[in-house]
Design brief:
Layout: E1 2-8, E2 14-19, H1 22-30, H2 36-39, E3 45-52, H3 55-67, H4 70-102
Antiparallel strand pairs: 1-2, 1-3
Length: 103
């Protein structure tokens, strides 16, 4: 898998990049082995990742996101987090319903 990721730097700025493993790449940024941009803005926190089956797709999306404004990227992060939260709540509800039905 190939990923595009966004990390939020300690100064609040956002950095967009490509990685095979976004969590490992975030650790590399925090160890000072990431991009020059993030080296003076540590620690960074992974706030978004998007997976692709090909390197080409991932690099195209990385380029696209790098053209976006900060506000557009922040909105993407917010929408993604909101969706993930809704999915977690729905899963918890389904689990609770199945426990009640199966008791």
């Amino acid at each position: 898998m190939h990923f595009v990721y966004i990390v939020r730097c300690t100064d609040g700025s956002l950095y967009t990049g490509y990685a095979r493993d976004p969590k490992a790449r975030t650790r590399a940024h925090n160890a000072g082995r990431g991009a020059r941009y993030t080296s003076g803005r540590r620690p960074v926190r992974l706030v978004y990742s998007e997976g692709f089956s090909t390197l080409s797709e991932a690099l195209k999306r990385e380029y696209e996101l790098k053209q976006w404004t900060r506000a557009e990227k922040q909105d993407l992060v917010r929408r993604t987090r909101r969706l993930a939260r809704q999915q977690r709540l729905e899963q918890q509800k389904q689990n609770a319903d199945s426990e009640i039905g199966g008791a």
